[in-house]
Design goal:
The termini are far apart. The protein is α/β, with parallel strands linked by helices and 338 residues long. Helix content is 44%, strand content 15%.
């Protein structure tokens, strides 16, 4: 049995198909009485509007695409929640694409969203992202877009990011206040701006405390497994650190796992601090000192900037929004409470 069409409704009601179409679209030119008759007949016949055709006619699909590295990370899940709170309230649906930290997958996601004519794109780059040629395709398509968290600077778009420098500076200053002086930094890929900013904040906090910068204490490790390995290596060196500041909570957990396994007293012998405030960081022993990134707020701010571009002034200048992280002091660095 074929699906009912507006022509079937028109034939049943003995009115024009154009009138039926306007009534279904809630056109103000159509009387309430006619709208009621049309909608009742549509339900009776099982009519379902062709959304794809409607979107093609209007040029709008009320769909926003978001590209992010990994949805399973608590931070990115929180960002998506914030986005949906704002976008759903304005009648938009969110289509989620994961790059899984891969540049090629990120490029495919951009191409897919452009080809599907989404109304806007929100993007946080993969750890493999170098350059911006593939991101310029979004600008060339005319689709409004906003970058968040992991961004490329030399690109014409609005941006929402954490104040990574000040967060790292505050964390390292806290470690110094607790009496730590040889602080290792578990860094992330330096092609990503946020990890460069966290390294800069670390270095400036050391300089402010007149502690020499030691390149041998900078170790790239962004996962639990790699952090366990590099922490083990440096702790077995002739001059091991007395604290770790990790650019992510996952690498902090890797260092903490190694230290606990080897019987170190955390925080008295070695301190450990992370960045991100993943939910499990307050449930482990010792609980992890970290920085809250306010992912929900980032998602809301990102979506509001995109809506302003879509529904407001499309020629508006790019806006940069900075969200300050919050230091959360827990057992893993708090020598004064142990």
């Amino acid at each position: 049995m074929r699906d009912a069409t507006i022509y079937d409704i028109a034939s049943e009601l003995e009115i024009s198909a154009a009138t039926v179409s306007r009534a279904i679209a809630n056109n103000p030119r159509i009387s309430l009485k006619t709208k009621k008759l049309v909608n009742e007949k549509a339900r009776e016949l099982g009519y379902r509007p062709n959304k794809i055709a409607s979107n093609l006619r209007s040029g709008r699909g009320n769909t926003i695409g978001v590209i992010l590295p990994q949805i399973q990370r608590h931070f990115f899940a929180s960002v998506i929640h914030g986005m949906e709170v704002v976008l759903n309230a304005h009648g938009y649906n969110l289509v989620i694409c994961q790059s899984n930290e891969g540049l090629n997958q990120e490029k495919k996601a951009i191409e897919t969203l452009i080809n599907n004519r989404v109304d806007g794109i929100l993007i946080s780059n993969s750890k493999e992202t170098h350059g911006n040629d593939h991101l310029k395709l979004i600008n060339q398509s005319g689709i409004p877009f906003v970058q968040f968290d992991r961004i490329v600077d030399d690109l014409n778009s609005s941006k929402v990011v954490n104040d990574n420098f000040s967060g790292a500076y505050e964390m390292v200053s806290h470690l110094i206040d607790q009496g730590y002086s040889r602080i290792a930094h578990l860094s992330g890929p330096q092609n990503l701006k946020l990890y460069r900013e966290r390294l800069d904040g670390y270095a400036c906090a050391l300089e402010a405390a007149h502690i020499p910068f030691d390149q041998s204490l900078i170790l790239e490790a962004i996962t639990i497994d790699t952090a366990e390995v590099v922490a083990g290596g440096i702790m077995q060196s002739d001059n091991p650190p007395d604290a770790f500041f990790a650019a992510s909570d996952l690498s902090a957990l890797g260092a903490l796992n190694y230290l606990k396994c080897k019987g170190y007293n955390v925080p008295q012998e070695v301190g450990v601090a992370g960045f991100g405030n993943e939910p499990l960081t307050e449930m482990i022993t010792p609980s992890l000192t970290t920085l809250e990134q306010f992912g929900v707020d980032m998602g809301k701010s990102t979506s509001k900037l995109l809506l302003n571009s879509i529904e407001g002034n499309k020629q508006s200048v790019s806006v940069s929004t900075l969200i300050k992280p919050k230091l959360i002091i827990r057992e893993s660095t708090n020598r004064s409470r142990t």
